[in-house]
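Bench notes, afternoon.
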Amino acid sequence: MKKMFLKFVLCCLYLWRPVGAFGHLRHVSVKEGDSVTLNSGLTEIQTDDEIVWRFGYNGFIIARINNVTKSISYDHYWSLAERLKLDHQTGSLTITNSRILDSGIYEVEIRHSSFETIYRFEVGVYEVFPEKETEKSVLEGDSVALHTGRTYLNDDWIQWWFLKKNYLIAELNVPEDRYIVYDDVLDGRFRDRLNLDKHTGSLTITNLTTQHAGVYDLDFNTMSRRSFSLTVYAHLPVPVISSNSSQCSSSSSSCSLLCSVVNVSDVTLSWYKGNSLLSSISVSDLSISLSLPLEVEYQDKNTYSCVINNPISNQTQHLDISKLCHTCSDSLKL
């Protein structure tokens, strides 16, 4: 009777080791490339213990220790096996050179002769991005892809936000098999324009307008953060070159010209002589008109052009001096 009571007490003491209750989820975060150790809570594996480590919601076995047979084995799951290390004394598991795909739920099952204990860990491997936002520039009507940097998602959830996290526009939750785009926010600004890749979480926005310019934030359950600053440029008009003189000239040897564009923003307007820049003017205001003058000789045989450009496109108008610059004698001949 005393022996049975003693075994009962020892069993209770084993069950009440200070490692947490069954089902308790411990959160562990690690920077990509670093190592992370998941502690079994044991100081020493008992003679008849078996330690089994599983990964993912489906519970794939990735490593185990059988203290009876004194064997340690690693099962191949993705590329984890070659980067796993089991402590033969405690059963703790170390993942070396951690990768984004290692993120997910890990479970250790400690099997004793008459009972078992299970502990679970949620591991988040996060990417380190530069603090500066990733800048992207496109033309109106084009598409843009905002990439998560992943090639595959494990037990992840991600969220895409617009305008400094004021508007949630898309989210994907792998464990719950939830895939949603919120294209009706901001009075339908994104309607029929959002495409969320179910495998990588990357977001593509099609048929862009200037209303879609702004900051897009990506949130991961693995504590990864990424921001994209998107600029959408309107299509540029072709510059118009006109004579700045209302009548022919009989005394001047030069001709006054004007290059103009209307309703433009974030552009530079320039005059070129061949490939050489003569003059330019820039503006960042919204929807204004620009004009840039030029003086040329009537008999000038050089080539001139007026160019409007923004960071991703340009439009050019070539000058035909013979059509725009006439002396009075030329006008009489005509």
